Amino acid sequence: MRVIICEDAVLLREGMIRLLQDAGHEVVAALADATGLEDAVTEAEPELVLLDVRLPPTFTDEGIREAIRLRASHPAIRILVLSQYVEERYAAELIADRRGGLGYLLKDRVTDIEEFLESVETVAGGGTVLDPEVVAQLLHRRSRDSRLDRLTPRESQVLGLMAEGKSNQSIAKALFVTEGSVEKHISQLFQKLDLGADTDGNRRVLAVLTYLANANQGSSGGGPAHYSSNTYSSNTGVPRRGA
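== Response regulator transcription factor ==
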Protein backbone atom coordinates (compact mmCIF):
# COMPACT_ATOMS: atom_id res chain seq x y z
CA MET A 1 0.00 0.00 0.00
CA ARG A 2 1.22 3.49 -0.89
CA VAL A 3 1.15 5.90 2.06
CA ILE A 4 1.82 9.60 2.62
CA ILE A 5 2.66 10.74 6.15
CA CYS A 6 2.18 14.35 7.26
CA GLU A 7 3.52 14.78 10.79
CA ASP A 8 5.67 17.59 12.18
CA ALA A 9 7.26 15.61 15.04
CA VAL A 10 10.42 14.12 13.53
CA LEU A 11 10.71 11.12 15.85
CA LEU A 12 7.07 10.13 15.42
CA ARG A 13 7.24 10.65 11.67
CA GLU A 14 10.38 8.54 11.30
CA GLY A 15 8.97 5.91 13.63
CA MET A 16 5.79 5.55 11.57
CA ILE A 17 7.83 5.35 8.37
CA ARG A 18 9.80 2.45 9.81
CA LEU A 19 6.70 0.68 11.14
CA LEU A 20 4.87 0.95 7.84
CA GLN A 21 7.87 -0.12 5.78
CA ASP A 22 8.53 -3.09 8.03
CA ALA A 23 4.88 -4.08 7.54
CA GLY A 24 5.40 -4.10 3.77
CA HIS A 25 3.91 -0.71 2.90
CA GLU A 26 5.52 1.96 0.73
CA VAL A 27 5.85 5.46 2.19
CA VAL A 28 5.85 7.61 -0.94
CA ALA A 29 6.18 10.95 0.89
CA ALA A 30 6.79 12.16 4.44
CA LEU A 31 5.99 15.81 5.11
CA ALA A 32 6.46 18.05 8.14
CA ASP A 33 3.46 20.28 7.31
CA ALA A 34 0.48 20.41 4.98
CA THR A 35 1.96 23.01 2.61
CA GLY A 36 2.79 20.55 -0.15
CA LEU A 37 0.34 17.82 0.78
CA GLU A 38 -2.14 18.43 -2.03
CA ASP A 39 0.63 18.37 -4.64
CA ALA A 40 2.15 15.24 -3.09
CA VAL A 41 -1.21 13.47 -3.21
CA THR A 42 -1.74 14.43 -6.85
CA GLU A 43 1.75 13.33 -7.85
CA ALA A 44 2.20 10.16 -5.77
CA GLU A 45 -1.41 8.93 -5.84
CA PRO A 46 -1.31 7.26 -2.41
CA GLU A 47 -3.95 4.89 -1.15
CA LEU A 48 -3.73 6.25 2.39
CA VAL A 49 -2.82 9.63 3.90
CA LEU A 50 -1.82 9.61 7.56
CA LEU A 51 -1.69 13.08 9.08
CA ASP A 52 -1.54 14.99 12.34
CA VAL A 53 -4.46 17.20 13.37
CA ARG A 54 -2.23 20.09 14.48
CA LEU A 55 0.45 21.13 12.01
CA PRO A 56 2.63 24.20 11.39
CA PRO A 57 2.38 27.12 11.26
CA THR A 58 -0.30 27.62 13.95
CA PHE A 59 -0.50 24.08 15.37
CA THR A 60 -4.26 24.35 15.74
CA ASP A 61 -6.37 22.56 13.14
CA GLU A 62 -4.41 22.70 9.85
CA GLY A 63 -4.16 18.92 9.56
CA ILE A 64 -7.77 18.02 10.16
CA ARG A 65 -9.00 20.80 7.88
CA GLU A 66 -6.69 19.43 5.21
CA ALA A 67 -8.15 15.97 5.82
CA ILE A 68 -11.65 17.32 5.17
CA ARG A 69 -10.45 19.01 1.96
CA LEU A 70 -8.78 15.82 0.77
CA ARG A 71 -11.95 13.84 1.42
CA ALA A 72 -13.75 16.26 -0.88
CA SER A 73 -11.11 16.56 -3.63
CA HIS A 74 -9.84 12.96 -3.62
CA PRO A 75 -12.78 10.80 -2.46
CA ALA A 76 -10.96 7.52 -3.21
CA ILE A 77 -8.11 8.26 -0.79
CA ARG A 78 -8.28 6.81 2.70
CA ILE A 79 -7.52 9.17 5.59
CA LEU A 80 -6.13 8.32 9.04
CA VAL A 81 -5.94 11.31 11.39
CA LEU A 82 -3.75 11.35 14.51
CA SER A 83 -4.10 13.81 17.38
CA GLN A 84 -3.02 14.51 20.93
CA TYR A 85 -6.53 15.79 21.66
CA VAL A 86 -10.06 15.45 20.31
CA GLU A 87 -10.96 18.29 17.95
CA GLU A 88 -14.70 17.80 18.40
CA ARG A 89 -16.01 20.12 15.72
CA TYR A 90 -13.93 18.68 12.91
CA ALA A 91 -14.11 15.12 14.18
CA ALA A 92 -17.89 15.33 14.02
CA GLU A 93 -17.68 16.75 10.51
CA LEU A 94 -15.45 13.91 9.34
CA ILE A 95 -17.66 11.23 10.84
CA ALA A 96 -20.81 12.84 9.44
CA ASP A 97 -19.27 12.38 5.99
CA ARG A 98 -20.79 8.87 6.05
CA ARG A 99 -18.08 7.29 3.92
CA GLY A 100 -15.57 4.62 4.84
CA GLY A 101 -11.80 4.77 4.63
CA LEU A 102 -11.53 7.05 7.66
CA GLY A 103 -9.74 6.90 10.98
CA TYR A 104 -9.34 9.25 13.95
CA LEU A 105 -6.92 8.06 16.62
CA LEU A 106 -5.21 9.66 19.56
CA LYS A 107 -1.43 9.41 19.28
CA ASP A 108 -1.19 7.14 22.31
CA ARG A 109 -2.51 4.37 20.06
CA VAL A 110 0.63 4.49 17.90
CA THR A 111 2.62 3.03 20.79
CA ASP A 112 0.70 -0.23 20.40
CA ILE A 113 2.27 -1.35 17.14
CA GLU A 114 -0.10 -4.22 16.41
CA GLU A 115 -3.16 -2.10 17.11
CA PHE A 116 -1.83 0.79 15.03
CA LEU A 117 -1.08 -1.42 12.02
CA GLU A 118 -4.51 -3.05 12.36
CA SER A 119 -6.07 0.42 12.26
CA VAL A 120 -4.06 1.28 9.13
CA GLU A 121 -5.28 -1.89 7.41
CA THR A 122 -8.89 -1.27 8.43
CA VAL A 123 -8.92 2.28 7.07
CA ALA A 124 -7.08 1.25 3.89
CA GLY A 125 -9.70 -1.45 3.37
CA GLY A 126 -12.52 1.10 3.46
CA GLY A 127 -13.46 0.70 7.11
CA THR A 128 -13.76 3.25 9.89
CA VAL A 129 -11.55 3.44 12.98
CA LEU A 130 -12.51 5.73 15.86
CA ASP A 131 -10.59 6.16 19.09
CA PRO A 132 -12.90 5.41 22.03
CA GLU A 133 -12.08 8.79 23.58
CA VAL A 134 -13.25 10.49 20.37
CA VAL A 135 -16.49 8.51 20.49
CA ALA A 136 -17.01 9.24 24.19
CA GLN A 137 -16.54 12.99 23.82
CA LEU A 138 -18.76 13.25 20.76
CA LEU A 139 -21.53 11.19 22.33
CA HIS A 140 -21.39 13.17 25.57
CA ARG A 141 -22.39 16.33 23.74
CA ARG A 142 -25.18 14.95 21.55
CA SER A 143 -28.82 15.36 22.56
CA ARG A 144 -31.80 13.07 22.17
CA ASP A 145 -32.35 12.15 18.52
CA SER A 146 -36.05 12.09 17.69
CA ARG A 147 -35.42 9.73 14.76
CA LEU A 148 -35.22 6.86 17.24
CA ASP A 149 -38.87 7.42 18.06
CA ARG A 150 -39.70 6.23 14.55
CA LEU A 151 -38.49 2.71 15.30
CA THR A 152 -40.81 -0.12 16.23
CA PRO A 153 -40.09 -1.98 19.49
CA ARG A 154 -38.53 -4.84 17.52
CA GLU A 155 -36.35 -2.48 15.46
CA SER A 156 -35.20 -0.78 18.66
CA GLN A 157 -34.37 -4.17 20.11
CA VAL A 158 -32.34 -5.10 17.03
CA LEU A 159 -30.47 -1.79 17.18
CA GLY A 160 -29.70 -2.33 20.85
CA LEU A 161 -28.20 -5.75 20.07
CA MET A 162 -26.19 -4.20 17.24
CA ALA A 163 -24.81 -1.71 19.76
CA GLU A 164 -23.72 -4.64 21.94
CA GLY A 165 -21.55 -5.75 19.02
CA LYS A 166 -23.66 -8.70 17.92
CA SER A 167 -23.58 -9.90 14.32
CA ASN A 168 -26.79 -10.47 12.37
CA GLN A 169 -26.48 -14.18 13.03
CA SER A 170 -26.11 -13.61 16.79
CA ILE A 171 -29.07 -11.20 16.82
CA ALA A 172 -31.23 -13.77 15.03
CA LYS A 173 -30.27 -16.41 17.60
CA ALA A 174 -30.98 -14.07 20.52
CA LEU A 175 -34.43 -13.13 19.18
CA PHE A 176 -35.32 -16.62 17.91
CA VAL A 177 -35.93 -15.33 14.37
CA THR A 178 -34.29 -15.95 11.01
CA GLU A 179 -31.25 -14.02 9.87
CA GLY A 180 -33.30 -12.79 6.91
CA SER A 181 -35.83 -11.30 9.32
CA VAL A 182 -33.02 -9.48 11.14
CA GLU A 183 -31.74 -8.08 7.85
CA LYS A 184 -35.20 -6.72 7.07
CA HIS A 185 -35.43 -5.02 10.47
CA ILE A 186 -31.99 -3.47 9.97
CA SER A 187 -32.92 -2.24 6.52
CA GLN A 188 -36.05 -0.61 7.95
CA LEU A 189 -34.25 1.06 10.84
CA PHE A 190 -31.61 2.43 8.43
CA GLN A 191 -34.39 4.08 6.47
CA LYS A 192 -36.07 5.49 9.56
CA LEU A 193 -32.77 6.93 10.78
CA ASP A 194 -32.29 8.61 7.38
CA LEU A 195 -29.21 6.56 6.61
CA GLY A 196 -29.27 6.21 2.84
CA ALA A 197 -27.82 3.33 0.85
CA ASP A 198 -24.06 3.04 0.81
CA THR A 199 -21.40 0.53 -0.17
CA ASP A 200 -19.08 0.92 2.80
CA GLY A 201 -21.17 -0.51 5.61
CA ASN A 202 -20.95 2.75 7.56
CA ARG A 203 -24.70 2.93 8.07
CA ARG A 204 -24.25 0.34 10.79
CA VAL A 205 -21.63 2.54 12.42
CA LEU A 206 -23.84 5.63 12.31
CA ALA A 207 -26.91 3.77 13.54
CA VAL A 208 -25.03 2.41 16.54
CA LEU A 209 -23.49 5.81 17.31
CA THR A 210 -26.98 7.32 17.27
CA TYR A 211 -28.20 4.64 19.66
CA LEU A 212 -25.24 5.03 22.02
CA ALA A 213 -25.56 8.81 22.04
CA ASN A 214 -29.16 8.62 23.15
CA ALA A 215 -28.51 5.89 25.67
CA ASN A 216 -25.74 8.03 27.18
CA GLN A 217 -23.28 5.23 26.66
CA GLY A 218 -19.63 5.37 25.64
CA SER A 219 -16.24 4.32 26.88
CA SER A 220 -12.79 5.80 27.11
CA GLY A 221 -11.14 2.44 27.72
CA GLY A 222 -10.13 -0.41 25.45
CA GLY A 223 -8.88 -0.17 21.92
CA PRO A 224 -10.13 1.96 19.05
CA ALA A 225 -13.45 1.16 17.46
CA HIS A 226 -12.99 -0.66 14.17
CA TYR A 227 -15.81 -0.83 11.65
CA SER A 228 -15.70 -2.54 8.29
CA SER A 229 -18.33 -3.32 5.69
CA ASN A 230 -19.53 -6.54 7.29
CA THR A 231 -18.07 -6.95 10.77
CA TYR A 232 -18.85 -5.42 14.13
CA SER A 233 -18.15 -6.62 17.63
CA SER A 234 -17.45 -5.19 21.05
CA ASN A 235 -14.68 -5.11 23.62
CA THR A 236 -15.23 -3.62 27.07
CA GLY A 237 -18.23 -1.73 25.74
CA VAL A 238 -16.38 -0.34 22.73
CA PRO A 239 -17.11 -1.63 19.21
CA ARG A 240 -14.26 -3.53 17.60
CA ARG A 241 -13.68 -5.51 14.48
CA GLY A 242 -13.92 -9.27 14.24
CA ALA A 243 -17.42 -10.44 15.17
